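Hi, here's the filled form for the chain we discussed.

Project: internal
Contact: R.S.
Residues: 287
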Amino acid sequence: MNNNNSERARTLVEALPYIQKFTGKVVVIKYGGNAMISDDLFAAVIEDIILLQLVGINVVLVHGGGPEISDMLDRLGIESRFVNGLRYTDADTMDVVQEILCGKVNKDLVATIMRKGGSAIGMCGLDAKLFEARRMEGGEEDYGFVGDIVGVNPGIVLQAIANGHIPVIATVAFGVDDETAYNVNADTAAARLAIALDAEKLILLTNTRGVLRVKDDESTLIKQIRPDEIGGLLAGGVIAGGMIPKVECCADAIAGGVRRTHILDGRIEHSILIEMLTDEGAGTMIY
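And the returned structure, exactly as it came back:
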């Protein structure tokens, strides 16, 4: 007997109980970072999503597009500026954000899913007021057209799922305090949408293995964290820097009723399938 075929068979058998458990459930995946700019990683993410859809799992894909936005701003001679880790978004930058996120990035993702045999439909937070936002208040800081999400109306997403499509969502929000669109944080948007959809899982793809007990030492990956442990990890400096808002998004999602949240390494091919359909799992789970 071919050992490779035996290994494949064992992998499929291992996946079976997970497929049975998650069939018909909603999984929200936030996609960004290196996984969007590496061709191999991009292909792996799309393949994972299509496979999950084909076995009956309702995937909702929320995406950013920071590298593409920065590239277009450079071409136009507009400076990319960040305030407390958030992109300062003046009127010209907001035009670029909307053009790149809702246009090029969103439609490229939809087209790629379709070409690989999946069924997808693109939308953004402006559509049917999916995401409603107000201008972010930053005390003395000015973030421009950056918004805080104050409402989520998931009807359009549920309709897409019911029609057999993978919703692909760009994180531009409908302004409720002004006649404008707002740039909103993609991790936050994914968490708020997962709550509104009563999702089984929220998965955040990142550029690290997950939460590390020792900075830069991937062998110290913390595989599971309970919400009541987060305070101590913050106080001890284990959760720091850009990992803080991601963990906070996961904690908010759990508090809102999402069953499991995961911070996964988007640099690992098929990390979504490894987490969803194997005993091994990947990254850090907050549950």
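Let me know if anything looks off before we file it.
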